[in-house]
Design a protein that fits this description.
globular; 5-stranded parallel sheet; 5 helices; 167 residues; alpha/beta; binds S-adenosylmethionine
Length: 167
Protein backbone atom coordinates (compact mmCIF):
# COMPACT_ATOMS: atom_id res chain seq x y z
CA UNK A 1 0.00 0.00 0.00
CA UNK A 2 1.20 3.51 -0.79
CA UNK A 3 1.25 5.70 2.30
CA UNK A 4 0.49 9.37 1.95
CA UNK A 5 2.83 11.57 3.89
CA UNK A 6 1.44 13.06 7.07
CA UNK A 7 -0.64 16.11 6.27
CA UNK A 8 1.78 18.96 5.84
CA UNK A 9 2.53 21.84 3.57
CA UNK A 10 2.22 20.00 0.27
CA UNK A 11 -1.04 18.71 -1.06
CA UNK A 12 -0.45 17.23 -4.46
CA UNK A 13 1.76 17.51 -7.47
CA UNK A 14 5.18 19.12 -7.20
CA UNK A 15 5.49 21.94 -4.75
CA UNK A 16 1.88 23.04 -4.68
CA UNK A 17 1.11 24.26 -1.19
CA UNK A 18 -2.08 23.76 0.80
CA UNK A 19 -2.38 27.54 0.79
CA UNK A 20 -2.51 27.55 -3.01
CA UNK A 21 -5.13 24.80 -3.02
CA UNK A 22 -7.21 26.74 -0.50
CA UNK A 23 -6.86 29.81 -2.74
CA UNK A 24 -8.03 27.78 -5.75
CA UNK A 25 -11.17 26.72 -3.90
CA UNK A 26 -11.76 30.25 -2.60
CA UNK A 27 -11.77 31.35 -6.27
CA UNK A 28 -14.10 28.51 -7.30
CA UNK A 29 -16.56 29.45 -4.54
CA UNK A 30 -16.40 33.14 -5.39
CA UNK A 31 -16.65 32.86 -9.18
CA UNK A 32 -19.30 30.13 -9.24
CA UNK A 33 -21.15 31.47 -6.19
CA UNK A 34 -20.89 27.97 -4.76
CA UNK A 35 -21.85 27.02 -1.20
CA UNK A 36 -21.82 23.79 0.80
CA UNK A 37 -23.34 21.23 0.60
CA UNK A 38 -23.35 21.62 -3.20
CA UNK A 39 -22.47 18.55 -5.24
CA UNK A 40 -19.13 18.94 -7.04
CA UNK A 41 -17.23 16.77 -9.53
CA UNK A 42 -13.46 17.25 -9.61
CA UNK A 43 -12.67 15.90 -13.07
CA UNK A 44 -9.05 14.68 -13.46
CA UNK A 45 -8.64 15.04 -9.70
CA UNK A 46 -5.12 13.55 -9.54
CA UNK A 47 -4.11 13.05 -5.91
CA UNK A 48 -7.30 14.76 -4.82
CA UNK A 49 -6.07 17.98 -3.25
CA UNK A 50 -9.16 19.96 -4.32
CA UNK A 51 -11.50 17.09 -3.37
CA UNK A 52 -10.05 17.16 0.13
CA UNK A 53 -10.34 20.91 0.52
CA UNK A 54 -13.92 20.88 -0.77
CA UNK A 55 -14.81 17.99 1.55
CA UNK A 56 -13.34 19.86 4.51
CA UNK A 57 -15.66 22.76 3.63
CA UNK A 58 -18.74 20.53 3.59
CA UNK A 59 -19.27 19.88 -0.13
CA UNK A 60 -20.49 16.57 -1.51
CA UNK A 61 -17.48 15.69 -3.65
CA UNK A 62 -16.66 13.16 -6.33
CA UNK A 63 -13.14 12.98 -7.72
CA UNK A 64 -12.53 11.20 -11.01
CA UNK A 65 -9.13 10.10 -12.28
CA UNK A 66 -7.58 7.35 -14.38
CA UNK A 67 -4.72 6.66 -12.00
CA UNK A 68 -5.35 4.07 -9.29
CA UNK A 69 -2.13 5.13 -7.61
CA UNK A 70 -3.18 8.79 -7.35
CA UNK A 71 -6.61 7.82 -6.09
CA UNK A 72 -5.09 5.56 -3.45
CA UNK A 73 -3.01 8.50 -2.26
CA UNK A 74 -6.13 10.66 -2.24
CA UNK A 75 -8.08 8.05 -0.29
CA UNK A 76 -5.31 7.67 2.30
CA UNK A 77 -5.11 11.42 2.75
CA UNK A 78 -8.91 11.63 3.10
CA UNK A 79 -8.76 9.04 5.89
CA UNK A 80 -6.06 11.04 7.66
CA UNK A 81 -8.20 14.15 7.45
CA UNK A 82 -11.42 12.40 8.46
CA UNK A 83 -13.31 13.41 5.31
CA UNK A 84 -15.03 11.15 2.79
CA UNK A 85 -15.06 12.31 -0.81
CA UNK A 86 -16.17 9.71 -3.29
CA UNK A 87 -13.59 8.63 -5.89
CA UNK A 88 -14.23 7.18 -9.35
CA UNK A 89 -11.43 5.44 -11.22
CA UNK A 90 -11.58 5.27 -14.98
CA UNK A 91 -10.98 6.85 -18.34
CA UNK A 92 -12.94 10.11 -18.58
CA UNK A 93 -13.72 9.30 -22.20
CA UNK A 94 -15.56 6.12 -21.16
CA UNK A 95 -16.64 6.20 -17.52
CA UNK A 96 -19.98 7.62 -16.32
CA UNK A 97 -19.53 10.91 -14.45
CA UNK A 98 -22.69 10.65 -12.36
CA UNK A 99 -25.41 13.30 -12.44
CA UNK A 100 -27.00 16.35 -10.84
CA UNK A 101 -23.76 18.17 -10.04
CA UNK A 102 -23.93 21.84 -9.07
CA UNK A 103 -20.40 22.30 -10.37
CA UNK A 104 -17.62 20.55 -12.23
CA UNK A 105 -14.07 21.72 -11.68
CA UNK A 106 -11.10 20.90 -13.92
CA UNK A 107 -7.96 22.10 -12.21
CA UNK A 108 -4.35 22.60 -13.16
CA UNK A 109 -4.82 22.62 -16.91
CA UNK A 110 -5.86 18.98 -17.00
CA UNK A 111 -8.06 19.33 -20.07
CA UNK A 112 -6.94 19.80 -23.65
CA UNK A 113 -4.75 16.79 -24.32
CA UNK A 114 -7.17 14.56 -26.20
CA UNK A 115 -8.18 14.48 -29.85
CA UNK A 116 -10.85 17.03 -30.80
CA UNK A 117 -13.58 14.39 -31.02
CA UNK A 118 -12.72 13.03 -27.58
CA UNK A 119 -12.67 16.51 -26.08
CA UNK A 120 -16.09 17.21 -27.54
CA UNK A 121 -17.32 13.96 -25.98
CA UNK A 122 -15.97 14.92 -22.55
CA UNK A 123 -17.57 18.39 -22.73
CA UNK A 124 -20.85 16.75 -23.69
CA UNK A 125 -20.56 14.36 -20.73
CA UNK A 126 -19.85 17.31 -18.44
CA UNK A 127 -22.95 19.11 -19.71
CA UNK A 128 -25.08 16.02 -19.11
CA UNK A 129 -23.68 15.49 -15.62
CA UNK A 130 -24.59 19.01 -14.45
CA UNK A 131 -27.99 19.96 -13.08
CA UNK A 132 -29.98 22.77 -14.74
CA UNK A 133 -28.07 25.53 -12.87
CA UNK A 134 -24.76 23.68 -12.92
CA UNK A 135 -21.53 25.53 -13.69
CA UNK A 136 -18.02 24.63 -14.83
CA UNK A 137 -14.74 26.04 -13.54
CA UNK A 138 -11.80 25.15 -15.75
CA UNK A 139 -8.25 26.25 -14.99
CA UNK A 140 -6.27 26.70 -18.19
CA UNK A 141 -2.77 27.76 -19.07
CA UNK A 142 -2.05 31.35 -20.00
CA UNK A 143 -0.68 31.20 -23.53
CA UNK A 144 1.51 34.32 -23.34
CA UNK A 145 3.02 33.31 -19.98
CA UNK A 146 3.77 29.83 -21.33
CA UNK A 147 5.46 31.23 -24.43
CA UNK A 148 7.62 33.52 -22.27
CA UNK A 149 8.58 30.89 -19.69
CA UNK A 150 8.73 27.72 -21.78
CA UNK A 151 11.88 25.68 -21.10
CA UNK A 152 12.65 23.39 -24.03
CA UNK A 153 15.45 21.65 -22.12
CA UNK A 154 13.35 20.38 -19.19
CA UNK A 155 12.57 16.67 -19.27
CA UNK A 156 10.50 14.15 -17.34
CA UNK A 157 13.63 12.16 -16.47
CA UNK A 158 14.82 15.03 -14.27
CA UNK A 159 11.77 14.68 -12.07
CA UNK A 160 11.35 12.39 -9.11
CA UNK A 161 10.21 8.96 -10.28
CA UNK A 162 7.43 8.19 -7.81
CA UNK A 163 4.17 9.96 -7.16
CA UNK A 164 4.58 9.13 -3.48
CA UNK A 165 7.24 11.84 -3.47
CA UNK A 166 4.64 14.36 -4.55
CA UNK A 167 2.76 14.52 -1.28
C1 LIG B 1 -2.36 17.61 -14.03
S1 LIG B 1 -2.94 16.12 -13.35
C2 LIG B 1 -4.22 16.44 -12.23
C3 LIG B 1 -4.13 17.62 -11.40
C4 LIG B 1 -5.20 17.83 -10.39
N1 LIG B 1 -6.45 18.31 -11.00
C5 LIG B 1 -4.63 18.88 -9.45
O1 LIG B 1 -4.92 20.07 -9.63
O2 LIG B 1 -3.84 18.49 -8.57
C6 LIG B 1 -3.93 15.44 -14.69
C7 LIG B 1 -4.66 14.17 -14.29
O3 LIG B 1 -5.40 13.68 -15.38
C8 LIG B 1 -5.48 12.27 -15.22
N2 LIG B 1 -5.87 11.69 -16.51
C9 LIG B 1 -5.16 11.69 -17.66
N3 LIG B 1 -5.87 11.09 -18.64
C10 LIG B 1 -7.06 10.71 -18.08
C11 LIG B 1 -8.20 10.06 -18.59
N4 LIG B 1 -8.29 9.65 -19.86
N5 LIG B 1 -9.23 9.85 -17.74
C12 LIG B 1 -9.17 10.23 -16.45
N6 LIG B 1 -8.09 10.85 -15.91
C13 LIG B 1 -7.05 11.09 -16.72
C14 LIG B 1 -4.08 11.88 -14.74
O4 LIG B 1 -4.09 10.65 -14.08
C15 LIG B 1 -3.74 13.05 -13.83
O5 LIG B 1 -4.02 12.77 -12.49
Amino acid sequence: MIRARTVGEKTGFGNLSEERTRGDIDAVERLLDLHPPAKVLDLFCGTGRHCLELSKRGYEVTGLDYSREYLELAQNRARELGVSPHFLQGDARKIEFGSDYNAIIVMWASFGFFADEEERLIVQKMYQALNAEGKVYMEVKHRDWEVQHFEPSSSLSERKPSVSNWL
